[in-house]
Fold Thymidine kinase.
Amino acid sequence: MQSSKAVIMALFSEDQTQETNRRGRIEIICGSMFSGKTEELIRRLKRAKFAKQKVEIFKPTVDSRYSQCDVVSHDKNYINSTPVDSSSSILLLASDVDVVGIDEAQFFDLGIVDVCNELANMGIRVIVAGLDMDFKGTPFGPIPHLCAIADEVSKVHAICVKCGQLALYSHRTVNCNKQVLLGETERYEPLCRKCYLKALKQQNTLKEA
Ligand SMILES: Nc1ncnc2c1ncn2[C@@H]1O[C@H](COP(=O)(O)OP(=O)(O)O)[C@@H](O)[C@H]1O
Ligand SMILES: Cc1cn([C@H]2C[C@H](O)[C@@H](COP(=O)(O)O)O2)c(=O)[nH]c1=O
Ligand SMILES: [Zn+2]
């Protein structure tokens, strides 16, 4: 019992000072698709709201999958947000708040790094969720840079749909080479390293045939 409690506390930050004191910091929640990034972002933001903190939530306009305005998880858990075209809009809209939440941050420009630093320097708690790797297993947009400047990074994992191990890759199951391709289970599946390499091999064999 004691050890499982310790594991939960290591995974999910429950430092109450974050919810009661106004203290600038940057928290990153990253991982593959279906790893629970959005659920964890919503959980932290709802707790901040319970603590009567002023919270503003942003997402890139490009992410219109479930809703134009809300941040929505795969389990349809949601929280209201403001869609923005570029990272600079976040600075303009978030100067007078305690907490800023940002979802799907992989789709933002690199300017998001300075924006997050500026907000944190102003005393704002900044919580960012995003994909750390694209479907090729390449670091995605500004997320690696954000991890570098963060106070805390939580890497979360989905379950590999082939073997049940922890998944760290988002395997694209349709034929498209563009980095940005919105989708859900009809286009992507979370896989562990072994199953991801196997799937890539099979795809290459099919292409060569
Ligand atoms: N293979 C999977 N592994 C883990 N969770 C999955 C899987 N497929 C669907 N889910 C669902 O996705 C939810 C997480 O959704 P979400 O927080 O939106 O993930 P993310 O933002 O990382 O894509 C889980 O709570 C679970 O119900
Ligand atoms: C891997 C990968 C994903 N995408 C898209 C697919 C989804 O619309 C989002 C990720 O959403 P989630 O909340 O993390 O499930 O990103 C993409 O455009 N390119 C990729 O390589
Ligand atoms: Zn696997």
